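Regression test case RT-17, inverse folding.

Input:
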């Protein structure tokens, strides 16, 4: 645990929300959501190379979204394919380096997909 005050984060503007976390891909198998880190979401393996993050809450609009893969072999990559803050979903695609087709992320001990989504939840959206 950090010994610093990490109580809040400053941002320009009101009603900004950040949801971030990580999950462990398992080849073509279901995601074990008990291994997730972060709060406010669940994840499902929905098709080959496709993971759907479902947020606990709906938000006004998306400001920014990013996904990255931590993998020892570094043979695959991930990206945010779509995000719908009102429908509470974000889709992450994975593929092998240099390939256009989707591919499942190989299950391994230290392999995780990390993501961050920044929302603007102001009433004047």
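Golden output:
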């Amino acid at each position: 645990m950090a010994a610093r005050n990490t109580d809040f984060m400053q941002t320009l503007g009101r009603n900004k929300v950040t949801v971030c976390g990580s999950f462990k891909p398992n080849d073509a198998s279901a995601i074990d959501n008990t291994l997730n880190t972060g709060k406010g979401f669940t994840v499902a393996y929905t098709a080959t190379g496709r993971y759907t993050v479902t947020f606990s809450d709906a938000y006004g609009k998306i400001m920014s979204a990013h996904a990255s893969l931590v993998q020892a072999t570094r043979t695959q990559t991930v990206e945010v394919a779509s995000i719908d803050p009102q429908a509470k979903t974000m889709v992450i695609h994975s593929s092998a380096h240099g390939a256009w087709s989707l591919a499942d992320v190989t299950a391994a001990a230290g392999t995780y997909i990390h993501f961050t989504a920044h929302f603007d939840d102001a009433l004047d959206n």
